[in-house]
Amino acid sequence: MPSGARGETIYHLPLSYRPAPVEDAEAYLLATMQHSVLGDRFVYDGLADETALDCFRRAICGEQQQAALEIYDEDGALSETLPKSVTLSLEVDEGEEPPTGDELLDGTPFTIARTLGDLDGVVRLRATWDGDSAVVAAL
C-alpha cells in the first residue's frame, strides 16, 4: 500500500517547504521544523501556496521539469543523487495542446487532486510509483 494511502483511498498532499512564514497564511501552516543547517522551516498546504500552485501550472503546461533529489556534504559538495520514488509525466489527448503558462494565469481552470483515482481531463499530470500511477492534476 502506498504511504499516502488510507484503506483503498490514496491521498495527494502537496506541501510547500519555506524558509520563513508566509504572510496571511497561518491557517495553512501544517508544521514547523528545525533543519540542522538551514534552521527553521515552515511547511504549508501546497494548494494554498501560490509558489506551489505555480509549480503545478508550469508542470501541466510542460514547462517544469521534475527536480532530482541531491544530497550535499557539510562542505557543500554533491555527495549523492537519489533515484526518484515518484516520477511525473505529462499526458495530452490526441489533437489537444498543453496550455501556455499565460493561459493558466489568465484563468483557465485546472484541478489538483486531493484524493487519487477519478481525475481526468484532456491534459493530465500523472504520478507513477512502485508499479502504480494516478493523475494528480488535470485540465
Can you walk through the features of this model?
This protein is mainly beta and 139 residues long. The chain has one domain. It has 2 helices and 12 strands. A hairpin with a 2-residue loop joins strand 11 and strand 12 (132-138). The two termini are 28 Å apart. The model has no long low-confidence stretch (mean pLDDT 89).
Mean pLDDT: 89
- Helix tally equals 2
Secondary-structure element sequence? Answer: EEEEEHEEEHEEEE
Largest sheet: 4 strands, antiparallel
Class inferred from helices and paired strands: mainly beta
Compact description:
The chain is mainly beta. The protein is 12% helix and 40% strand. It has a four-stranded antiparallel beta sheet, with helices on one face.
Please tag this protein with its features.
mainly beta; three-stranded antiparallel sheet; globular
